[in-house]
Predict the 3D structure of the following.
Amino acid sequence: MATYVTQFSEGNKDQKDLLGGKGANLAEMVNMGLPVPPGFTISTEACKAYLRTGEVPPTLRVEVTMALRKTEDTIGRHFGADEEPLLLSVRSGAKFSMPGMMETVLNVGLNDRSVQGLATFANDERFAWDSYRRLIQMFGKTVLGIEGDLFSEALDAIKAAAGTTQDTDLTADDHKKVVAAYKQIILEETGEEFPQDPRDQLDAAIEAVFNSWNTERARLYRRRERIADDLGTAVNVMAMVFGNLGEDSGTGVCFTRDPSTGHGGVYGDYLPNAQGEDVVAGIRNTFPLTKLEELDPTSYAELRAAMRRLETHYRDLCDIEFTIERGKLWMLQTRVGKRTPAAAFRVATQLVDERLITLDEALGRVSGQQLSQLLFPHFDAKSGISALTKGLGASPGAAVGEIVFDNASAIAHQKEGKKCILVRRETSPEDLPGMIASVGVLTARGGKTSHAAVVARGMGMCAVVGAEAMKISTSERTVQVGDTQLGEGDVIAIDGATGEVFVGAVPVVDSPVLTYISEGIDAAEQAVEGDIETLDLIRSVDRLLRYADGVRRLRVRANADTAEDAVRARARGAQGIGLCRTEHQFLGERRKFIESVILAETSEQRDAALEALVPLQRGDFEELLSAMDGLPTTIRLIDPPLHEFLPDLTEVSVQVALAERDGGADEHDKEILAAIQRTHEANPMLGLRGVRLGLKIPGLFALQIRAIAEATVALIEQGRKPKPEIMVPLIGSVRELQIIRDMAEKIIAEVAETSGVALSIPIGCMIELPRAALTSYRIAEEADFFSFGTNDLTQTTWGFSRDDVESGFFAEYLENGVLTISPFETLDALGVGQLVKIGVDGGRRTKPAIHAGVCGEHGGDPESIHFFHNVGLDYVSCSPFRVPIARLEAGRAAV
Ligand code: PEP
Ligand code: MG
């Protein structure tokens, strides 16, 4: 009974874990009756077993033999036979697509004898020897790990001797020379002959694909895309079909809709007389797919029918790789295609209109991450700067940066905090580190399906490809377009939507989707003035966002400290303020007020200093509550350690010391120094802050509570509907909250009595310490609501200092896989999330209706929002910019 190998005809699209994405989809196409060359998939389990033990499982060899025989029977030819040989392609295929990151070996099965058989079968000696040399080259590089340049140099030498620079000019005899040279390279580099036994070739190729799961670039890609390291890759072994048998053959890539814009229609690249890798590698510039209609109308019609069937079957945009061998269409791969954020929104709503998917499903097809990318700025068309040249807009965005030509300079730029654009003739998987370090990528060659385009789209980075007018010299580090010559360090700007390339820093403007988000649909429609595509995009976003609003259970509030932020947040759909950090109201000019509170020597002095703050705070709260009229507004009592309001210890020490030397320091400066020394703490984030400060200097919280109550009264008297909520930070024990609550209730009652206005102001607390989460059932006795402060909760649960960790050892932690992403960015569901769950559950046990939300940074993070939905929080609160993203994700979490 086979355990590791599945014939294409036996699998299906839902087996991606086992067969990888490519294998599962090949199986599905076979099931649909589409023309797929026969073959089989070696499962990810085999890869995992290999990676675990370092050995190919013995039963795998037997299973491969059996599967191979079936493949031979289906196609009626024999693997590596001298006559009419069956050749195989051996391709990687993980669960999640990792374009170009792992290895492929083509033409497996060719040797000194079968190359003759292939020549006879194809009736083309040149083709047969070209295929053979390709095999040796790929095998040498991929399986034997020989430096690729050695092969390119040997090929160049033979081309030079033949008086040409084009591969296509080489004759069969030239290719025989290339084969001989390549074999010599292999012998010299490895001490062994190129293996003539087809089965040895196959086994080695399979092993090489397994190994390619763990290459440097594959690991880097997985980290970046957050793909788990232990999934392993499947290996697809398929009968070779040839796109390079002449002008009635060819190869191409197509999409069922435009993956850049979402536009319907025929979209793809076709390259006559070529093998698949030529298209993806972007080495030769391709024709648009419509050209195939002229060249081969029958295959074109068949392909179009297959595209339609696939799209109907998958109910989504599909991408397809195909080959035409002497007028016969073969489907080599399909999958649900990657797309730009704009295309994602447009395709999702198109499919709803076409009754192919429901609105619930449409919501699942877009993400907050994509929406955030749509909010990026683009170049100002009115800048009047004309483009230097134009390529294909392959991945949208507007990038401005210095030209770099290789990975090393890109990384050096990034380290210096300088933005750069990676400029290459074409990109290959080796360029991944440089792409990651750059803000954009620009290539001279390749279509929208080239490696650069696919990878950039996947990473959401701006890319322009195929700007053919550019002549790039990597050795001289120059790029020439007509008379203009640019070098490394020159600033360029690239527009990933239009494909335009500019010299200099072109000014950028806000995105139309951002206009829609912040000013509404009418303003946005006016702003785009009849640009149908953009209009369609805005309407798609609007439709899905409104749908998300209708289905989501989580409410979305904003973290806003000023009326201005509150207005912005409200325009973006915030349903209240989840966190107003009042300490932010004491920065700048007002810092001196807090300073005098700290410096006060007597309680009278301190009371006076505090009293002076009441009118200022009342004004702040009136503005804030008025901007949020009718919506809940959580105001957090002052939180940070006092030293944050005092100047830096070293600076003042030096200042005082110098002044003393020069005849005496200012008394005030000396007082400040003493105060800094007095309040100095070794671990201020674990020190006198939050409720501790409120208990140590009760007047501080009291003044804020009074200001909130008085501002509320003033607004009610104006006929407004203020809805303040008072939040106490850094609670660890119920008793802390009880003391503050008693005080707050007294103050509120006093204000109500004096003014004659009835006040009902909920009092709740942050849950941001593990102890608070663990004892939430007790804290709930004194709290009207909870707000999870996941920033501090992460800090205290992991014991990572939130202010230092990112510049400290995070890089190593990400590198060696302790972390896959910063826990300050995406909630650590397993650890910190567990405390959130304990916190909510405990609170609800005591008070089933207790209102609970989150106001840490995670409130705006897509993945974390799903977690908060699942643990039953009532709302998330995030920065005003992220409010629409949170609305969308909260909707997605609910469907
Ligand atoms: C938190 O700790 O998550 C929080 C929201 O408070 P702050 O970031 O102000 O400490
Ligand atoms: Mg906090």
Remarks:
- The mean pLDDT is 91.
- The pocket of magnesium ion (ligand 2) is lined by residues 768, 789, 791-792 (CB under 6 Å).
